[in-house]
Amino acid sequence: MPSPIQNPRLLLTSTRIPLYLSSKTPCTHRCFASLPSLSPQTLAPQSTTSSIPSIRESLLSGRKKAVEIAAEYLDRIRLTEPQLKSFIHLSDSVLKDALELDRKVENGEDVGPLAGVLVGVKDNLCTVDMPSTGGSRILDGYRPAFDATAVRKLREAGAIIAGKTNMDEFGMGSTTEGSGFHVTKNPWDTSRVPGGSSGGSAAAVSARQCVASLGSDTGGSVRQPASFCGVVGLKPTYGRVSRFGLMAYASSLDVVGVFGSSVIDTAIVLSAIAGHDRLDATSSSHEVPDYSSEMIALDQLNSKPLKGLKIGVIKETLGDGIEAGVVSSIKAASSHLEQLGSIVGEVSLSSFDLGLPAYYILASSEASSNLARYDSVRYGQQADADDLSLLYGDSRAKGLGHEVKMRILMGTYALSAGYYDAYYKRAQQVRTLVQKSFKDALDQYDILISPAAPSAAYKIGEKTNDPLAMYAGDIMTVNVNLAGLPSLVVPCGFVEGGASGLPVGLQMISSSFSEGKLLRVGHIFEQSLQGYNFVPPVLSEN
Amino acid sequence: MALFIFRGFCANAIILIPKNGAFLHKIRPKRSQFEVQARRSGSTEARPAQKSSQMATRERQQQQLQGFEAIIGIETHVQLQTSTKAFCRCPYSYGSDPNTTICPVCMGLPGTLPVLNSRVVEFAVKLGLALNCEISMKSKFDRKQYFYPDLPKGYQISQFDIPIAKGGFLDVDLPVEFGGGHKKFGITRVHMEEDAGKLVHSDTGSFSQVDLNRAGVPLLEIVSEPDMRNGIEAAEYASELQRVVRYVGVSNGNMQEGSLRCDVNVSVRPGGQQEFGTKVEIKNMNSFSAMNKAIDYEINRQILLHKQGQANQIVQETRLWDDATQKTFTMRKKEGLADYRYFPEPDLPEVVLTDEYVDQIRKSLPELPEAKRRRYENMGLTMQDVLFLANDDDVCDYFDSCIQNGAEAKLAANWIMGDIAAYLKNEKVSIKEIKLTPKELAELISSIKNGTISGKIGKEILNELICKGGTVQGLILEKDLVQIVDPAAIEALVDGVIAENPKQLEQYRSGRTKLQGFFAGQVMKKSKGKANPVLLTKILQEKLNAGN
C-alpha cells in the first residue's frame, strides 16, 4: 500500500544544502584552502574561542576530567546566579553525570560529540529528571514523564544538562519579566533585561554558566536575547529540530533553537539535536550534515573568503524607529562582510510591516488553543472549586500570568465565529505574502541581513506597561518565523550603555535548510571581527 | 398459522388507535419479535399476511403524521478497529481497566504532538468509497475547541471544512413488514476525528473520575442528508451503515459498546412548508429499535406541540432517549450556536492522497450489501430472504459457498434461515463457528432432493452435522438412513401394520378416515423414518380402502 501521507509543507523546501557558499558562484571550501595568502589586517584571530572542541580535546587527551570541567562551570554558577537568576531549576546531578562520563573515558568507551558539555535547557522543554514549568505558575512542580526529543539527543551526545533556564511564561514575552517565577538580569548590565523569551538561556551562555543552551523561537525568542546578551543564537528552519517535548506556544511557528558563545559550538549542538523525529509529524527528514565539519579555520582562509556571496540588507530594518547605534553597527557589519569579499546590496521586503500584526494574530490564535490543556484537571496547580467551570476559571486565573491571559483572549477572539475571516484567515494570507517576498529576495541574494532587534537591551520595567512597544520590538524577527526560514544571530558590535557597552547582534537569514551556509558565513564573520570581546563584565567582576 | 393471524391483528390494532402514540410504542416490540421469528422460520407462508401488514403500516404513518412531515438527519460516529489509536501508539480495547491504555500523547501532556496513524486514512477512504462518496485527494485536520474533563487537550482533532469524503449515498431496502421498498439516503460527508475519554461519576455524585482509555481512539463521523422521514427509515439507514462498516472491516459496529453511535436530528414541519422546523437532537439510543421508537416518539411530541399551537416550545436542544420510560427528555438546551473556534491543526501535515492509493483501496473493497441484495434478488429469492441473508456478511459467505457447491438457492436459503439460524440464535454462535460446512449443506439438500433421504431425516441429521461435523454420506451409511423407495418393501410394512391393528382398521373402514394418520405414523415408525412419505401414503390409502 503506498503511503497516503505526503508533507507538502516540507516538500516545498527539500532541496539539498549546497556545499558552496554562494549558489551564484559555486566554490567549495577546498578552493579557499588552496589559496595561501592571508591578510593579517582583516583576519586577525579573535578572542571568541570555541569551547566544545576544546572540552572534547581536554577530555580525550586526559588533560582534564569531566568533573573538573563541570566544577568550573558550577563555581561560576554559584558566583553569578544570585545576581543573574538565569535558571528556574538547577540540576543536582551534574557532578554525578560528569563522574559517569569520566568512568567511560577511562574505560575507553565511546563518548558523544557533546561529552562533558554543560547545556542549559529552556524550561519549556520537557526533562524527565527536573521540573518543567514553561515559566508558568500553573505548572509549578510539574515533572514530565519524558525528555523532549532535543533534550534526549543532547544526552545521547554526552551533554550534561545544567538546569532549566528562565523564560517568559510559555514563551510569551521579550524580557523574562513575564516569567511566573523571577526576572533574569542581563550579564552586561544587571539593571537591564536579557531579552526573551529565552532570556535565561541567553544570559546563562553569556555569563558562561554553561557552554551552550537550548531555547525556543516563535517570533524571535532566541535571536533577540542572543543580541541583547552578546551570544550566538540560531533559529533553525521550521521542522529542522523536533518539537516533541517543547511546550507548544504557536505550533506552526515554534522551533527549538541553540545558543552558544561561538558559531562552532552552535553548529555542533545543532548537529546533535536536528533531524526527523517520528514523534513530530512536522519534523523534516531532510538530511542533517555535520555542520561544524564544514567550517574552516581562519588561517585556512584567503583574504576574501566570502568572494561572490550575495548579501542583501533588508531596507525596512534600518529605517525609522531603529536605534542609531544599532543601525551603525549593522552598517559596519555589512561593510565588514563586503571586505570579506561578498557583494552587498539593499533589498526591500514589501510585506515586511504586515508581518508583525499577522504574527500576533496567528501566534495568539494558536496559543489560545495550545494552552487549553492547562486546565488543572490532570496536572498542574488546581484551585479549590465546587463546580467545573469554577475549577477551570479559578485554576487558570491563578495559574496563568497577565500576558498569557491577554494573548489567550486575543486568540480566542480572532478565532471566534464571525471574526475568523477578518483576522486568522487574513493573517494566513499575509503569511503567504511574507513567504513570497522572502523567496523573491532569496532568489536574488544568498543571505539577507538585518538587526536582530531595534535596540540593545533596555532597562528592566521600561516596557512592562506598554505591551505594544514590547510587541514592536519583535519587528526584526517575526517575519522569519512566518516564513519558516533559518536565521543566525552573531554579535557584531556594541552601543553605549552599561559599564562596558551593550552588545548588538547581526541577524542573517537564508533559505530553508541552509543552516550550513549561515553557520559557515557566521563563523567567518565572527573570526574576522576585530577588536570586540563579547565576554560580559559580570565575569571579570567576579 | 396462528402466528400470522396475530401479525395481521396487531397491525389492525394500531390502525384502531392511531393517535395513541404511547400504546403504539408499547406494542411494537412484540411485533418485532414476531418478525424475527417469521424471518427465522423462513417460511414462504408468511407472505399472504404481509400485504395487509404493509398497507397497515403505510396507513398508520399517514394518519400518525396528520398532515405534518418529519425531517430526520443522522450523525453517526463509528469507532475504527485499528490496532492503535489515531495519533499515538496506544492500543485500545473496550472494557480495559480505566487509564491502562494511555500515554503522554493521548493524555495531552505538555509538549506532546499527534502523529497520524495511516490506517485511519485507509479506513476513511474505504468507508468513503463504500458510501459512494467523492474522496478529497487533499484534506486536512482541524481543531474543534471546547473545555471538558474528558477532552485532555482542550480540543478535539477533527476535520472541518475539507472532510476526507463527501457527497455519497446509501441504498436501503426497507423491511417487507414495514412496507418494503428501496430508498437512497444521501451522505453529506465522512470525516476523521478522535474520540474523547469518559467520565465516571461516583454513586454519591460528589465527584467524577476521568478514564482516558478511549481518548484518541479513531472515529469516522458520517453525516447523512436530512432524507429520512420516520423512525423505521432512520433505523434502517443506521443498520445498513452498520452492515457496510462490518462488510468493509473498518469497525465492529457494536452499538452496545459504543462502537457505532447515532445522534439523530428530528424536526417537523406542516405539509407544504418549505423551510425546516426547529430541530431537536436525540442521543443515547443503543439499538436500532430504540432509534426507531425514540424518533417516532419525538415526531409525535413535536406534532402534538404544533397542533396545540405550542410550536414555539420546540427548541433547539439535545434530548436523551430513556429506554425504561420509552420517552425522550431534555439533556441540555443550546443557548445560541456553540462556537468551536475551528482552525487548521498546525501539528499535522495535510493529508494528500494519490490516485494509485485510492484505486488500490477501491479494488480491495468486498462486495457490498446493496450489490449482494441485488444479486440474491436476481437468483429469484424473495425480498425477505434477501434481507435476511445480506444482513450478515458471514451468512452471505456461507450461502454463496452453498450455491457454489451446487445447492439450489431457495432451498439453501430456507435451511440457513430456518434450522441453522435457530441453532445460531439458541447457542449464540456465529455461522463461521458451526461444523456443518457449506459443502455438506449442499450435499444434504441434494440428498433430499434426489430422494436418498427424506426431508424429515435430513432435519434430524442436520443437528449432528452442525455440532459434530462429518459428511452427509458418512452419516447416511453409518446410520443406515437411505430412504425406502421400494414399493414392495413399503407394501410389506403397510401390510404388517394393518395386520397388527385390526381394530383401528375396522374403525377406519366404518368412516373414521382420520385414522389414516395413525397408520402412516406406525408404518413410519417401523421403517425408522426411512419410508418415502409419498409412496407410503399412496400404498397405505390403497390398502386401507381396498376392503371397501
UniProtKB/TrEMBL annotation, chain A:
This protein's name: Glutamyl-tRNA(Gln) amidotransferase subunit A, chloroplastic/mitochondrial
An example molecular function term from Gene Ontology annotations: hydrolase activity, acting on carbon-nitrogen (but not peptide) bonds, in linear amides
Other facts noted in the record for this chain: This protein may be expected to contain an N-terminal transit peptide but none has been predicted.
PANTHER family noted in UniProt: GLUTAMYL-TRNA(GLN) AMIDOTRANSFERASE SUBUNIT A, MITOCHONDRIAL, TRANSAMIDASE
InterPro entries on file: Amidase, Amidase_CS, Amidase_dom, AS_sf, GatA
Its EC number(s): 6.3.5.7
Claim: ATP-binding is one of the keywords in the record: yes
Domain of life: Eukaryota
Main location: mitochondrion
Keywords noted in UniProt: ATP-binding, Chloroplast, Ligase, Mitochondrion, Nucleotide-binding, Plastid, Protein biosynthesis, Transferase
GO cellular component entries: chloroplast stroma; glutamyl-tRNA(Gln) amidotransferase complex; mitochondrion
Chain ranges of the Amidase domain: 68-519
Known partners and oligomeric status: Subunit of the heterotrimeric GatCAB amidotransferase (AdT) complex, composed of A, B and C subunits.
Organism whose genome encodes this protein: Carex littledalei
TrEMBL record, chain B:
Residue intervals of the Asn/Gln amidotransferase domain: 397-544
Keyword field: ATP-binding, Chloroplast, Ligase, Mitochondrion, Nucleotide-binding, Plastid, Protein biosynthesis, Transferase
EC number: 6.3.5.-
Family listed: Belongs to the GatB/GatE family. GatB subfamily.
GO cellular component: chloroplast; glutamyl-tRNA(Gln) amidotransferase complex; mitochondrion
Reactions catalysed: L-glutamyl-tRNA(Gln) + L-glutamine + ATP + H2O = L-glutaminyl-tRNA(Gln) + L-glutamate + ADP + phosphate + H(+); L-aspartyl-tRNA(Asn) + L-glutamine + ATP + H2O = L-asparaginyl-tRNA(Asn) + L-glutamate + ADP + phosphate + 2 H(+)
InterPro entries per the UniProt record, alphabetical: Asn/Gln-tRNA_amidoTrfase_suB/E, Asn/Gln-tRNA_Trfase_suB/E_cat, Asn/Gln_amidotransferase, Asn/Gln_tRNA_amidoTrase-B-like, GatB, GatB_C_1, GatB_Yqey_C_2, Gln-tRNA_amidoTrfase_suB_CS
Subcellular location: Mitochondrion; Plastid, Chloroplast
Name assigned to this protein: Glutamyl-tRNA(Gln) amidotransferase subunit B, chloroplastic/mitochondrial
Predominant cellular place of this UniProt entry's protein: mitochondrion
Top-rank EC class of the record's enzyme: ligase
Pfam family, one: GatB_N
Alphabetized PANTHER family for the sequence: GLUTAMYL-TRNA GLN AMIDOTRANSFERASE SUBUNIT B MITOCHONDRIAL AND PROKARYOTIC PET112-RELATED, GLUTAMYL-TRNA(GLN) AMIDOTRANSFERASE SUBUNIT B, MITOCHONDRIAL
GO biological process, one term: glutaminyl-tRNAGln biosynthesis via transamidation
Subunit structure: Heterotrimer of A, B and C subunits. Subunit of the heterotrimeric GatCAB amidotransferase (AdT) complex, composed of A, B and C subunits.
Species, as recorded: Carex littledalei
GO MF annotation terms: ATP binding; glutaminyl-tRNA synthase (glutamine-hydrolyzing) activity; transferase activity
Region (Disordered): 35-59
